[in-house]
């Protein structure tokens, strides 16, 4: 039926209106063009194109399928994780997520130290990376001399392209000794009283993992923030300047304020990468399933334990517990993203966030 | 009270491209002065030189003297100080979309560290009344964002925002060109009201608008000031052939 409607030639306007007095003014001045269908090959061609409804429907169907595939993928991952971790789910229940203890020999498993390690190392990464990334983005969009802009932007994006195992190696050979010899002693002296920076200083540990993660998520946050900031209309900057603002006030009021939603979005993306990062973290976090108050102490993350122990999981319960850690990582990511969205919503409830 | 502006031998460039040539012009206090001319003639650049906005553009450069009152703005003061005293309204309404109506108006004062809430309330109301917007927005000052208003209301909000810092001079760069006739009429009435308290320089493409609101009108062409005189003289008996051609629509 579609092909029929496509091929049947619809009458042109002059045909369907042939008996009425309506006539375009130009056809009156050019009598040889009185029958446009005959005279104009372009009109003939366009009239033969039909309604194209068939193609449109196909396109729509294809796009809907693309969109629905997201649901299918997420659903498949979730069901697979739940099914494969059935054994440990049954044995430990919800307590698995809040229980700390990891003893494959005794068959005692709990995910809490790993959840803690993932969250804390990611948090440390955000605390370091966000100010750095936003500062870099501000410099690049608002004050960078033109000749420096593209090399700096290129280098930032290059950071994102380095494989994480290379970051890990660099962290082991450069970052960890640097932290151990120079940074940690200073931190311990200045901020030791907070107990965040105290205890034995191995170099390897939660802080090292946080720092390497910060370097890894820096390019994501900074390049997205830069995009959002350069999308803020120039008029907004001029409006603030015309009120007598200094450059910093202009950036704060005219740029950051308008771009804040996008900046939060880029931070969430960075956080997403930090939560799931495996290789580099595994190489420097210390791989000990313990919860220590000090950031100098070694820890473990969810992704690291899966990567390290998956090949050694000798019995079914062990394997099942590891897969349940995967489920925990999946859930933590969802919860963190949801919280971030709530935060955005709460901040912007008063006023629409759209930049004009 | 407004103050007069005295411009002597003003040149302006974008990079190597000179856009203004030796402009000499006086703007009397407490009057509206209109600047007309075809697109690209330099009239916008000229007003942007009066609050030192021109130099914020990439490679914008200025030479010559601009005195506002007794102050030589390019030698005796920093740009920030000048812009606090010279308000500006732009061609397209540009309220801050993430701020409420109240915060939009108060933004200039808050920016400069003014924190007295009671006085802020008073100033916001006075500025909005002055901009003939108070009655339309008084019920949702804090509820609605500046971007939720109509185009004409947004432009009056921008005028209120400029008035809130109590400037001595108000520069308007085609303030009504993006608005419909009703909003335009409101803005024109407003300019008429405001000139008793401020010195106004208004760039416009609309010659009737210049005739309606301004005591004096200047005609710019290719970066030069062709002539400036009383508005009725410019429109009835211009001194220069090019002005006559422009206002009668023979070019431009």
Task: Describe this structure as you would to a colleague.
The complex is a heterodimer of chains A (356) and B (252). Chain A is mostly helical and 356 residues long. Chain A has helices spanning 2-7, 13-16, 25-29, 36-39, 41-47, 53-84, 86-92, 112-143, 146-161, 164-191, 206-231, 234-242, 247-276, 279-284, 302-309, 316-348, and strands spanning 102-103, 108-109. Chain A has a two-stranded antiparallel sheet with strand order 1-2. In chain A, a hairpin with a 4-residue loop joins strand 1 (102-103) and strand 2 (108-109). Residues 1-7, 17-24, 27-31 and 351-356 of chain A have low confidence and may be disordered. Chain B has 252 residues and is of the alpha/beta class. Chain B has a domain at 5-95 and 168-247: Rossmann fold (3-Layer(aba) Sandwich). Chain B has 10 helices and 10 strands. Chain B has helices spanning 43-50, 79-85, 101-111, 117-130, 134-137, 151-163, 181-194, 207-213, 231-236, 241-247, and strands at 5-14, 17-27, 32-36, 60-68, 71-72, 86-89, 169-173, 199-203, 216-221, 224-230. In chain B, helix 7 (181-194) links the parallel strand 7 and strand 8 (199-203). In chain B, helix 6 runs parallel beside helix 7. Chain B starts with a strand and ends in a 5-residue tail after the last helix. The A-B interface holds A 233, 235-236, 238-246, 249, 253-254, 257-258, 260, 348, 350-356 and B 51, 53, 56, 80-85, 87-88, 90, 92, 94-100, 107-108, 111-112, 145, 147-148, 158, 161-162, 165.
């Amino acid at each position: 039926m579609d092909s029929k409607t496509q091929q049947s030639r619809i009458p042109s306007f002059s045909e369907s209106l042939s008996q009425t007095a309506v006539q375009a003014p130009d056809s009156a001045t050019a009598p040889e063009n009185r029958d446009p269908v005959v005279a104009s090959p372009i009109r003939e061609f366009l009239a033969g194109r039909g309604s194209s409804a068939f193609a449109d429907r196909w396109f729509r169907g294809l796009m809907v399928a693309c969109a629905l595939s997201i649901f299918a993928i997420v659903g498949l991952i979730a069901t697979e994780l739940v099914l494969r971790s059935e054994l440990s789910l049954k044995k430990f229940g919800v307590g698995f997520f809040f229980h700390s203890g990891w003893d494959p020999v005794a068959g005692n498993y709990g995910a809490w130290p790993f959840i803690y390690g993932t969250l804390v190392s990611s948090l440390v990464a955000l605390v370091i990376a966000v100010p750095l990334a936003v500062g870099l983005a501000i410099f690049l969009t608002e004050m960078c001399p033109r000749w420096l802009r593209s090399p700096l932007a290129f280098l930032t994006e290059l950071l994102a392209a380095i494989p994480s195992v290379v970051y890990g190696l660099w962290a082991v050979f450069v970052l960890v000794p640097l932290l151990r010899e120079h940074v940690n002693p200073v931190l311990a002296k200045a901020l030791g009283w907070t107990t965040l920076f105290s205890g034995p200083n191995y170099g390897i540990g939660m802080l090292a993992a946080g720092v390497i993660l910060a370097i890894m998520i820096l390019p994501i946050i900074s390049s997205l923030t830069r995009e959002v900031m350069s999308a803020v209309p120039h008029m907004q900057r001029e409006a603030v300047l015309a009120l007598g603002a200094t450059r910093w006030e202009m950036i704060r009021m005219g740029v950051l304020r308008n771009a804040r939603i996008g900046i939060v979005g880029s931070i969430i993306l960075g956080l997403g990468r930090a939560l799931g990062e495996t290789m580099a973290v595994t190489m420097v976090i210390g791989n000990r399933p313990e919860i220590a108050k000090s950031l100098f102490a070694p820890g473990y993350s969810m992704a690291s334990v899966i990567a390290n122990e998956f090949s050694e999981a000798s019995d079914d319960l062990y394997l099942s517990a590891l897969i349940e850690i995967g489920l925990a990582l999946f859930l933590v990511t969802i919860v963190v993203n949801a919280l971030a969205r709530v935060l955005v919503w709460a901040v912007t409830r008063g006023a629409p966030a759209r930049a004009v | 009270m407004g103050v007069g502006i005295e411009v002597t031998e003003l040149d302006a460039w974008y990079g190597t491209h000179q856009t203004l040539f030796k402009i000499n012009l006086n703007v009397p206090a407490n009057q509206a002065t209109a600047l007309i001319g075809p697109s690209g003639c330099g009239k916008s650049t000229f007003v942007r030189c009066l609050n030192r906005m021109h130099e914020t553009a990439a490679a914008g450069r200025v030479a010559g003297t601009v005195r506002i009152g007794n102050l030589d703005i390019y030698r005796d003061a920093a740009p920030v100080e000048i812009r606090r005293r010279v308000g500006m309204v732009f061609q397209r309404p540009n309220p801050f979309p993430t701020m409420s109506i109240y915060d939009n108006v108060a933004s200039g004062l808050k920016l400069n560290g003014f924190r007295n809430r009671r006085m802020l309330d008073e100033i916001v109301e006075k500025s909005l009344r002055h901009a003939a917007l108070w009655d339309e927005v008084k019920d949702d000052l804090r509820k609605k964002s500046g971007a939720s208003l109509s185009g004409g209301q947004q432009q009056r909000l921008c005028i209120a925002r400029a008035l809130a810092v109590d400037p001595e001079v108000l520069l308007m760069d085609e303030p009504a060109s993006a608005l419909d006739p009703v909003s335009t009429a409101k803005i024109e009435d407003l300019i008429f009201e405001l000139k008793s308290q401020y010195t106004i320089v208004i760039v416009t493409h609309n010659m009737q608008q210049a005739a309606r609101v301004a005591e004096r009108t200047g005609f710019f062409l290719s970066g030069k000031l062709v002539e400036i005189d009383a508005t009725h003289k410019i429109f009835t008996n211009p001194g220069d052939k090019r002005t006559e051609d422009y206002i009668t629509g023979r070019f431009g």
